[in-house]
Amino acid sequence: LSLASTDGMVFEALKDLQSICQKKHNNKIQVRSSGMVPLLVKFLEYKDRNVRCVTMELLRQLAEDDEGKEIVATTIDLSIIIKMLSSNHQPIRHTSLLLFLELSRSQSLCEKIGSVTGGILMLTTIKYKRSFDAFASEKADEILRNLERSPDNIKRMAENGLLEPLLNHLIRGHEEMKIEMASYLGEIVFGHDSKTYMAERASPALIKMVHSGNTLARKAAFKALKQISSYHPNGQLLVEAGIVQIMVEELFTRTIYNEPMNSKKEASAILANILESGIELETVTVNSHGLTMASDYIVYNIIYMLKNSTPDELNINLIRILLCLTKSPKASATIISVVKEAEASYNLIELINNPNEELGVASIKLLITLSPYMGHTLVDRLCKTRGQPESLIQSPTELTQITEKHAVSANFLAKLPHQNLTLNLALLNKNIAPTILQRISQIQRSGTRTSRYASAYLEGLVGTLVRFTATLYEHQILFLARTYNFTSVFTELIMNISSDEVQRLSANGLENLSSHSVNLSKPPQIKKPKNVKQLFLRKYSAFNSTKDKKIPLCPIHRGVCSSQDTFCLLDAKAVERLLACLDHENVEVVEAALSAICTLLDDKVDVDNSISMLSGVNAIQHVLNVVKEHKEEGLVQKSFWVIERFLMSGGDKSVSDISQDRLLPATLVSAFHHGNGSTRQMAEKILRHLNKMPNFTNTFTM
Asked: Which of 203, 438, 590, 612 has its C-alpha lying 20 to 30 A from 450's C-alpha?
């Protein structure tokens, strides 16, 4: 072998050596003791594949006893054999598998074989390709079964998609093995295609371990169930396996003293995962008395624990459960009733500033969910809490550092009742408005892509700014809106196409501001002269002045107007932008924009001039398009109201423009037949204006 100069000579020498080893067992011992194994190993990388093949056959022969296995496994680089498993040459694949099979029969070598990078992955792949190579598939399966004697190998198999060994040992293994397998289930990240099968097979055994196992078994089982339940499609499967009753028992009634882990924390996490999967709360029983997840028993216990529990992670999980329960009308009513009690609501608000940011975020999310039902109560609690409400508007040092906490905090302020003067004055007195405007300006310049939460943060900031416009009757807030020219701010923001919510909120702000314009717009004030000289000078000045020096009056509000002082939409050039929003796909944006436009057709304004101005920017065509595109009752009513105003005060041109719309009559007839009372009445009026219905006079009696 040392002197061979051709492939043929090497091959023949190896065949001779193979035949010597076959004659007597003692010959193998002599070959191994003569130091030939290292020389043979070199031929595994020989260029001729026949040489490589016969070398592996020879090494397999030398490894047929325990001593031989140790010598071969110690000398050989197993990764070379692993590479040969993927050879296109079938004899190479088969001999490499047979060599592995021989070595795997030694329990002491199982761990070494399994630890070779890519080894178990290759063997698993070959096992599942039976149709391609049945012999190889069978041998790979035998090798894998031998390797199962090492728990670490079982874990590696599961990581590479072969779950059966782990599941079989979990279900049928001895207690130590079960604990080890459960621990692996909690550590391994499985693909989605494996998670459901794993849950079906493993969950009964894991639930049993939680219920009746020792501390180590319970800890491992909790960890595995937490992992399994985090995959939402497994939710219903786990419910059917009876997990909810066990977790509720762990959470509320079962106490194991001196247990090193917090089983309530683990149980609450699993329960929260399952509820977040979207199961029907009213159908899931939690105890032998037939109570369900939506029962008062669950709600009261969860909120009681939230008041008295200290671990942050447990509090987070309890809030997650409550958020899921708010989706049930029955449970939601109970939660609102209980949280309205002073202590529960104060506890939730105090959690906002908890050092654990995740807990603060969870608490705010629950408060946002509850705010439509008890907003004024929450405002009262918030304003009585130290450091609130100003801490909810936090300013990140950089826009790239905007966190979820920044976003949800701002949105909580935006969602609380806008008409609540107490909160609006508290924000005003803490000088929050300049901070909000500064942050909005920065985000507009940099864009919302600077941070994952920048868009949500912007929505919260704009919503908080809009809330001031709901209480403009308070002179301090009116002064604030004028000082910072809110009309111009919202006019600019309404073109922010990156967020529908920002556009909707901006339109709401403009509507609120515009509704005050007619009262704020006043005729120009002329001071009375104090003496004859002043009277003479004023007359002389008036005689010499030109028409250009006259103060122009707003044609709609009949007084002196500006976007800053009277919030005039015409002066702010907001009308065209609002009309552009009527073509938006989002119905909420369309309705908000139309509501703002409706303030220009109010009875208190000069409707004739307003319609003339709106006709000049083709407003009626935009409104007719809204009627064609959207069927929502509220939006249809507003559109019909605008159309009626144009028909009544817009003259022949408006009547002509509206009459020429071919789809409008059919829409009106449909609304007349199927709409609610108000919509039907409006449709009837428009049909009469268009001479599509008889107009009964007072003298005609039915």
From this structure: 590
DSSP per-residue letters across 464-524: HHHHHGGGTTSHHHHHHHHHTTHHHHHHHHTT-TT-HHHHHHHHHHHHHHHTTHHHH-BPP
> What mean pLDDT is predicted for residues 199-221?
90
Cα distance between residue 226 and residue 265, in whole Å: 11
Contacts of 548 (CB under 8 A, 6+ apart): none
A 10 A CB-CB count for 83 gives 16
Sign of CA dihedral 445, 451, 452, 456: negative
Mean pLDDT of the region 221-233: 93
Beta-carbon contacts of 18 under 8 Å, excluding residues fewer than 6 positions away, are 54, 57, 58, 61
Using an 8 Å Cβ cutoff, are 353 and 360 in contact?
Answer: yes
SS3 content of the chain, % helix, strand, coil (to 5): 70, 0, 30
pLDDT for 541 beyond 60: no
Residues of 299-315 as b/e, b for ≥16 C-beta within 10 angstroms? bebbbebbeebeebbbb
Distance CA 474, CA 42 (A): 92
Measure the CA–CA gap between 495 and 328, rounded to whole angstroms. 38
Mean pLDDT of 217-239: 93
User: What is the DSSP code string of 515-571?
Assistant: TTHHHH-BPPP-PPPSSHHHHHHHHHHHHH--GGGSPPPPTTTSSB--TTTT--TTT
> What contacts 112, CB < 8 A, 6 or more positions away?
73, 78
Q: What is the DSSP string of 64-127?
A: SSHHHHHHHHHHS-HHHHHHHTT-SSHHHHHHHHHHHHHHHTSHHHHHHHHTSTTHHHHHHHHH
Contact 113, 68 (CB under 8 A): no
Predicted local distance difference test score (pLDDT) of residue 472: 96
Mean pLDDT of 244-248: 93
Write down the residue that tokens 């304003």 correspond to. Answer: 383
532 burial via Cβ count (<10 Å: 0-12, 13-18, 19+)? exposed
CA atoms within 13 A on the CB side of 452: 4
Which tokens belong to 121?
């992955």
Beta strands in 225-310 (DSSP E): none
Percentage of the chain exceeding pLDDT 70: 93
Q: Is 482 exposed, middle or buried (0-12, 13-18, 19+ CB in 10 A)?
A: middle
Angle, helices 243-252 vs 192-212, to 10°: value is 50
CA–CA distances in Å: residue 631 to residues 49, 367, 637, 639, 679: 75, 33, 10, 11, 11
Taking each helix axis from N to C end, the angle separating 49-62 and 25-33, rounded to the nearest 10 degrees, works out to: 110
pLDDT tens for 619-655 read 999 999 998 898 888 899 999 999 989 988 878 888 8
Using alpha carbons, select from 702, 607, 692, 694 the residue that is nearest to residue 658. 692
CB 153 within 8 A of CB 120: yes
Does the predicted model carry a pTM greater than 0.70?
yes
- The pLDDT tens digits of the residues spanning 282-311 come to 888 888 888 999 999 999 999 988 875 678
Which residue's entry shows tokens 């599961």?
158
Distances (CA, A) of 423 to 340, 352, 391, 414, 489: 18, 17, 13, 11, 22
Helices 134-147/107-114 angle, 10° precision: 110
- How far apart (Å, rounded) are the C-alpha atoms in residues 60 and 505? 77
What the block records as the tokens of 352 is 């906002």
Burial of 364 (0-12, 13-18, 19+ CB in 10 A): buried
Least confident of 10-14, 16-20, 308-312, 570-574: 308-312
